[in-house]
Specification:
Layout (H helix, E strand, L loop, with lengths): L14 E2 L2 E4 L3 H13 L5 E5 L12 E2 L1 H9 L4 H5 L5 E7 L5 E12 L2 H14 L3 E4 L5 E3 L4 E3 L3 E3 L1 E4 L6 H5 L10 E10 L7 E6 L6 E7 L4 E9 L9 H11 L9 E9 L8 E2 L2 E3 L15 H15 L4 H26 L3 H13 L1 H12 L6 H9 L1 H8 L1
Parallel strand pairs: 1-10, 2-3, 2-11, 3-7, 5-13, 11-18
Antiparallel strand pairs: 4-6, 5-6, 8-9, 9-10, 12-15, 12-16, 13-14, 14-15, 17-18
The structure holds flavin-adenine dinucleotide.
Flavin-adenine dinucleotide binds next to helix 1, strand 3, strand 12, strand 15 and strand 16.
Length: about 400
């Protein structure tokens, strides 16, 4: 029998895993799936503070691009969106009242997160991940391992615990910068016939950048909501003001009761997120990977989660993960950062929507920038800039 002393710092009370993932939302489940697809023998622990199924305030819009990522991880997209009808058109209304109402190149879906996340979690558990209900409070990262609440330990931890990430704070990451966080509120109402099976995004000059949405689920209900950027130095608005803004901007509600109204913050991408702290990899909202133009985050959560999971079981996680995200999304987020600054000027977004109204190709390019990893190509930019002088004159 070997009589070797345990290594320094060994504590038999600490349970060891190959990867610990904090948060079992889209980013966390994709991280678990990414790790297990790369190394099916990996021991992957998912921790979540909530009991599933759990709600998450969201527009529930699931882009085709998110389903592509999940399909690549072996998930059946049809099973995830079961019971919802495909969205075949999008209606974008600019702050100046320009309307682009066109078919979408790729259908998206509206699936209540209570349903979507529980289904996704089931696929991660079927793939071999272990789920434990546990609210993480402390995280200690050393040179070769990460310990959670003094009881769980792994060589790598993936922080997928959302916009208010505890892990992010615990590892000393910078708080969200002022002017890069949005606040949005969503609820459910009976579907309005006038909306049909299309997504409506209605922007407003009042507190721009801000918009309301009406997203039909296809089961007789629609997800409705309103969100706005929290300006640097400004007090976030009270719930009542957000609800009033929703009703003002969505006359289709027409006295319909809106239930389950809940608000949440959205940390928007600036294209400069730091993705690792020691042996902790940040994914999804915990890494501020939300599209700053649309507030869409599920696609970026599953993409970053899957890349973090794959890197976590590879040889050099802390270098491999940021490199993979940069490769997949670096230029996209550089362009959306630039565009997010440009659209602060409402004439620019008016010109953009007008260009989308006038050409399906431009409309498709705008959707790909807002929902996927699209970039601003010269043709689209030229089309938008050509309409800018007229948009400026109209506002003068
Ligand atoms: C109102 C609103 C509308 C939106 N609309 C859309 C939309 O239509 N389409 C879209 O793509 N995106 C939308 N988004 C953004 C989208 O909701 C997020 O980007 C997405 O949920 C991010 O996924 P995630 O896995 O990173 O985090 P989350 O989905 O927030 O999951 C985090 C998980 O971590 C758990 N957790 C938190 N703290 C701890 C802890 N200390 N210990 C253990 N577990 C913990 C939570 O319980 C949760 O399950 C919207 C956001 C808001 C607020």
């Amino acid at each position: 029998m070997l009589d070797a002393a345990p290594p320094d710092g060994y504590d038999a009370r600490v349970q060891r895993w190959d990867v610990i993932v904090v948060g079992a939302g889209p980013a966390g489940c994709a991280a678990a799936l990414g790790a297990l697809r790369t190394d099916p023998a990996a021991r992957v622990l998912l921790l979540d503070a909530a009991d599933f199924p759990r709600d998450k305030p969201c527009g529930d819009g699931v882009a085709a691009q998110a389903l592509d990522v999940l399909a690549g991880l072996g998930v059946d997209p049809g099973g995830l969106v079961r019971g919802s009808a495909p969205i075949v058109r999008m209606r974008l209304e600019s702050p100046g009242g320009v309307i682009a109402d066109r078919p979408v190149a790729r259908s998206c879906w509206v699936v209540p997160r209570e349903v979507f996340d529980a289904r996704l979690l089931n696929t991660a558990l079927s793939a071999g991940a272990v789920l434990r209900r546990h609210r993480v409070r402390t995280v200690r990262s050393t040179q070769d391992s990460v310990t959670v609440d003094d009881e769980l330990c792994a060589p790598v931890l993936i922080a997928a615990d959302g916009a208010e990430s505890t892990v992010r704070r615990a590892v000393g990451a910078r708080p969200w910068r002022e002017g890069t966080v949005a606040l949005a509120l969503r609820g459910y109402a009976a579907a309005a016939g006038s909306v049909g099976q299309q997504q409506v995004l209605r922007m407003t000059t009042e507190r721009w950048p801000a918009y309301a949405w009406l997203f039909p689920i296809g089961d007789g209900r629609m997800n409705v909501g309103y969100g706005e950027l929290v300006r640097a130095g400004a007090e976030p608005r009270a719930r009542r003001q957000l609800v009033d803004a929703l009703h003002r901007l969505a006359p289709e509600l027409d006295g319909r009761p809106v239930d389950r109204l809940r608000g949440h913050r959205l940390p928007l991408s600036t294209g400069r997120s730091r993705l690792t702290h020691g042996r902790v990899l940040l994914a999804g909202d915990a890494a501020a990977l939300i599209n700053p133009l649309t507030g869409e985050g599920i696609y970026y959560a599953v993409l970053s989660g899957s890349l973090a999971g794959a890197a976590a079981v590879g040889p050099d996680p802390c270098d491999a993960y940021p490199a993979a995200v940069k490769d997949a999304l670096g230029r996209h987020f550089a362009h959306t950062d630039l565009l997010a600054r440009a659209v602060r000027w409402p004439a620019f977004i008016d010109a953009g929507i007008r260009a989308g109204r006038d050409a399906q190709r431009t409309f498709d390019a705008i959707c790909e920038i807002g929902l996927g990893s699209g970039r601003l190509d010269p043709l689209t930019l030229g089309h938008v800039l050509a309409g800018l002088p007229a948009a400026v004159r109209k506002r003068a």
